[in-house]
Amino acid sequence: MFLPELSGLGVSQSRITTFGGLNTTINAAQNEFSEMLNMTSDFYPVLATRQKRYKTVRLRSSIFYGSYYKEGLYYAARALDGKIYLLFEGVTCQDNQGHNIELYNFGSDEKNKRTFVGMGAYLLIFPDKLCYNTKTKELTKLQDVADLTEVENSPFRMFLSDKEGNEYYLTTDEEKIYVSGDSGETRIFCRQVGSGWSFYAYDEKAKEWKETDDVYLCLRGDGVLSLNADISAFKKGDVVNLDTVPPEEADDVFPPVQAKIISIPMGIRLRVIFEYVDGIFLIAPGEDMQSVGTPITTYGFYMYTVVPDMDFVLEANNRIWGCSSKNREIYACKLGDPKRWYSYEGTSLDSFTVTIGTDGDFTGAINYNGYPIFFKENYIHKIYGNYPANFQLSTATCRGVEKGSGKSLAVVGGVLLYKGIDGIYAYDGSLPEKISAVLDGVELKNVVAAAYSMRYYFFSQKDGKADKLYCFDMQTGLFTEEDSWEARELIETPNEIYITRFLADEPETRYVYSMHPPYGGRELLPGNYEEDITWSCTTGWFGKSDVSYRYVVRVALRLQVEEGGYCDVAISYDDSDKFVHLCRINGSADMLHTPNNVVYQYMNINRCNKFRLKLNGKKQCKIYSIDLIEEAAEEANHGKF
Q1: Exposed, middle or buried, 21 (CB in 10 Å: 0-12/13-18/19+)?
Q2: pLDDT higher than threshold 90 for residue 57
Q3: Which one has a higher pLDDT value, 367 or 510?
Q4: Measured between alpha carbons, how far is 115 from 103 in angstroms, rounded to an integer?
Q5: Residue 228 and residue 16: Cα distance in Å, rounded?
Q6: CA 524 to CA 89: how far, in whole Å?
Q7: Contact at 8 Å (CB) between 34 and 62?
Q8: C-alpha dist (Å) from residue 73 to 69, 154, 456, 619
């Protein structure tokens, strides 16, 4: 008896050995992952869990207002007494007088956020406008302040004068003619023109009033004791504010008067000569006493140098740069002098100011390749040149930094990365390019970032806390996701990157962890790695491989699990959101005796149109491959049995 020869169902096998990264879109490939937690591309093409982080510094406060790494970690934090201090490596900083350095309290936590800028040995603190010498411990204000309200009962007053400080007596009555030598007075006639004033001196030869610009402001102390006032910090060319209140109490309701110092003559009386400022307050003395201009008292002043209020601050080419959305301006201080911002003497040392005409607020700023660059959401402003006379502003209309993501700027491998309105962008000096299409399935807002080696770490924030921590690997082009720990800060250093964390049993304390020990981690506390890592990842969809109706019937994993750890495997069939447990692979000492310490695990699965796998576990794990064993279905009925 002869029986017909039957052809067996064809069996084939495919293997995935190169694993991609996170892809939150519906187009995630079989070797990509729609969800991830605590995974890394450090061992690419192998899929692996990230390494443990190492605790380095204990922060004695849970309220953190910013940090800066300068031969160690400086940061601002609120102490238990409610005050805000500057700290270094967990210890309160002191000045050269032995006093704790207390920072200003501006009210809300949002207003109390600090920006730190390094300039040589100096650590500049904004918006406090303080300068701390990290070598000598000297703490100074960026604004030089002279209290001229009263010095040992010797009042100061302001009046109009000539360039030498000789007082002018004013009149608004054109019929009253006073000339030099008449009662020892020199009078000038003033007439209001718009919101300002024009001044006229009497020409004896022509017998008429002629307009003059020989008008200055003189600040004079009445009495020898006024020489006790310390104005040694001020010099010719300084632009200062004159106000009846100290700089920390200045407001927009009664703004200070800004004037440039022309000279500080020597003499028995302390005098400071300023350029005239149009619209300044004037009071005419003597029998013609009357108010002219803004009615503010002329007796009692604070004189202080002007440091503009800036939204973002950076250092580039030995100058401090900043920008103001309110004033729509970009500023630079004098070369090497962060205390002088409005000095225009026509030299290469001058400060610099330029007005910006583009729409919107500034959203970020950074020194990139030696050039100060300022961002808006749809513009990039770049300053070229190396001294004020050849500074040039270049504006590009393109995707800039999203508002609220000013801390997302970081340079990785010579490329500037940042968060734009619709994703992460890479900028090399030409035009930015979006690189985060695989993250279009998640919302990223208020992004904070830092760079380490060829990696760009960043997290988005909700309610001031980190939502998810991501990593972009420039070498592989892959995104991965890590545990955020409700972080508030990423701290970038030359050799390491740090992240801050709360511990559940110490809610009032925050710790700083090294993310890549031991390369940059400094064991400032007894050795203490974080607890065992829990991890997970969900693959893209596996489906029919071709028109021959081949179905996956078995799946095999080739992996390595740390002793004491495990890896659970679950599967979701077709369009179901429910995952069914397949098996658990335990890490044990026996695994160390397998070839290359790697084991294979085969799992039978149900026949389906498509499926996806979810892997989760604890401790370190490396997945080397996923094998798919397929069989062909009967073609006559198209695979329906």
Answers
A1: buried
A2: no
A3: 367
A4: 12
A5: 82
A6: 9
A7: no
A8: 5, 47, 20, 30
The pairing of beta strand 550-561 with beta strand 621-632: antiparallel
Q: Is 172 exposed, middle or buried (0-12, 13-18, 19+ CB in 10 A)?
A: middle
Contacts of 558 (CB under 8 A, 6+ apart): 598, 599, 600, 623, 624, 625, 626, 627
> How far apart (Å, rounded) are the C-alpha atoms in residues 550 and 536?
29
Cα torsion through 2, 7, 9, 11, rounded to 10: 120
In the three-class reduction of DSSP (H, G, I as helix; E, B as strand; rest coil), residue 465 is classed as strand
Distance from C-alpha of 130 to C-alpha of 339, rounded to nearest angstrom: 10
Tell me the HSE value of 336 on the side-chain side, using a 13 A CA sphere: 2
Q: Which positions ≥6 away from 383 have C-beta within 8 Å?
A: 321, 330, 332, 371, 372, 373, 374, 391, 392, 393, 394
241-277 pLDDT, tens per residue?
A: 888 788 878 777 777 878 889 888 876 567 788 887 7
Strands 478-482 and 490-492: unpaired
Residue 394 has pLDDT above 60, yes or no: yes
CA–CA dist 32, 21 (Å, integer): 5
Q: What is the pTM of this model?
A: 0.84
Mean pLDDT of 410-433: 95
pLDDT at residue 9, rounded to an integer: 57
395/214 Cα distance (integer angstroms): 41
**DSSP 8-state assignment for residue 425:** E
Q: What average pLDDT does the structure give for the chain?
A: 83
Hey, which bits of 17-114 come out as E strands?
A: 33-37, 39-40, 47-49, 54-59, 64-69, 73-78, 84-88, 91-92, 102-103
Q: Sign of the C-alpha dihedral, residues 29, 30, 31, 32?
A: positive
For residue 180, name the pLDDT band (cuts at 50, 70, 90). very low
Determine the pLDDT at residue 166.
79
